[in-house]
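Re: export button greyed out
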Amino acid sequence: MQLLSQFLRRNDTDEQLMDLIATLMVACKEIALQLREGALAGVLGTTDITNVQGETQKKLDVISNEIMKTVLLNHSLVAGVASEEESESVPGNPDGRYLVVFDPLDGSSNIDINVSVGTIFSILEAPKDQDYSTEHPYLQSGRKQIAAGYVLYGPSAVLVLTTGKGVNMFTMSHTGDFLLTRENVMIPEETREFAINMSNHRFWEPAMRNYVDDLLLGADGPREKNYNMRWVAAMVAEVHRVLTRGGIFTYPWDARSPKKPGKLRLMYEGNPMSMLIEQAGGLATNCYSDIMDVEPDDIHERVSVSLGSRKEVEALMEYHAQVESTKEA
Ligand code: AHG
Ligand code: MN
Ligand code: MN
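Workaround output, generated via the alternate export path:
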């Protein structure tokens, strides 16, 4: 079996990028250990702190964020970080080469019920001579990502990584090493599985309602096949399922917060997941265009996310294009 470092070297990965990824894994390994101890370490439950998203932080949101920040900001290659749990970006070494944007713990409502969560990260080049305590240098589109990935803390801890040369999976061993367990992941083009929070049905746009209603009609409807549904309530687990066996995952705009483009965050959820999905042959869209083409105005900007098996995502986009064309007519 191949170690992460051996695999990256074999693939001619930049030495400094390899160094940064190894450092990220030091943080993720520590988060995995905290999660494994759970109630024994007193890390379950909620704090009384509300983050910039207006969400109450779980203890493990705070702990994971501190681990990521401490490990990354102690590394000379890191010019700064931005996190879901930090209202402002945090500067590191002004001569550092990279910016790291992350969701320290995704799916944190799953922590207390002992269900999968994960850490999502996006690596950007740090533009030279900028103030990394301001958000400006971080506001780069997903297309500019140098690398992206996540660690899913499920029954096993799995790193899913792209450096722009395909997607590979590495499983954490009992020694804390990440070993290559799936190479060159490709998502099946078609699927019979979808993931959406159905309880928001009445708040969606008509196009999204039409699309899901037709999925529910199964073989008797226009899509002419029966679909199955899954909802883990952790994007990281939904994306892992899609990368493993295909499917479509969508968290669309909804009328509960009409001014926000969606619930998920562009820079540390939408973009890194979109890079993985595209690198695995799938599509990632806001229902109208590629998520990675969105130019961000805010580190915590939100986005409508639909991603997965290429043909299924294209079908969803077609429903949206049709509603738009009847509006114009
Ligand atoms: P986070 O825990 O980082 O705030 O993200 C949770 C997100 C995402 O992972 C998941 O897909 C979605 O919220 C679940 O939302 P619902 O609770 O509306 O199902
Ligand atoms: Mn999240
Ligand atoms: Mn989170």
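Residues 93 and 116 are 33 Å apart (CA to CA). The button fix ships in the next patch.
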